[in-house]
Write a structure and sequence with these properties.
single chain, alpha+beta, Aminopeptidase, eight-stranded mixed beta sheet, globular
Length: about 190
């Protein structure tokens, strides 16, 4: 199911079980690249784990409490954008994203996240979208800044990763701020 168009050749589609083989292949090819920032790929080591993950994301999308979309460019899966830590009572969530290594640095992640944010504010009716990333992840910090997120703080040693604790930067974007940037009303 196409959720949003990103540009002429790129779209966001809710990931589903039939996507498992290609999703698994992209993860395998990018395991080292992705592993420098998060352990997402480490939890999906087998095809069975990928299938189970995609089943869960379909169910979560149906229940409107979070999901993952594939970033598809010219029919090829090149990454994903997802919703984490959805809090329906407070109309708040966190945005997560990744791209295959050969597609970074081209503005695709920024455009894909922008399309997802539009969808989340309009269709989910959220009030706040957050991004959490390793404090030293300069690319994610730059993406958050380009999209109008404000740095809300630094959680010291908040994440255990690769045998050590690291700081996590927290960014937030409110619906009214997004609408003001887009020249729309909330």
């Amino acid at each position: 199911m196409v959720l949003a168009r990103v540009d002429q050749t790129t779209e966001l589609k809710v990931l589903s079980e039939p996507d498992a083989p290609i999703f698994y292949d992209v993860l395998q090819a990018n395991r080292e690249h992705l592993g420098q920032w998060f352990d997402f790929a480490e939890h999906l080591q087998s095809m069975e784990e990928v299938v189970a993950f995609l089943r869960r994301t379909e169910e979560r999308h149906t229940r409107r409490n979070g999901f993952w979309c594939g970033v598809w460019q010219s029919g090829n899966l090149i990454g994903a954008v997802g919703v984490a830590n959805f809090d329906g009572d407070n109309r708040s969530l966190e945005l997560a994203y990744w791209l295959a290594s050969n597609h970074t640095g081209k503005g695709i992640a920024t455009r894909a996240c922008s399309a997802m944010i539009d969808y989340l504010f309009k269709e989910y009716g959220v009030n706040r979208v957050g991004i959490r990333c390793a404090a030293e992840n300069q690319r994610s910090a730059a993406l958050a800044s380009r999209l109008g997120f404000r740095m809300e703080g630094l959680l010291r040693q908040a994440e255990r990763f690769d045998g050590r604790f690291r700081d996590v930067a927290v960014y937030g974007l409110l619906a009214e701020e997004w609408c003001a940037r887009r020249g729309k009303t909330a």
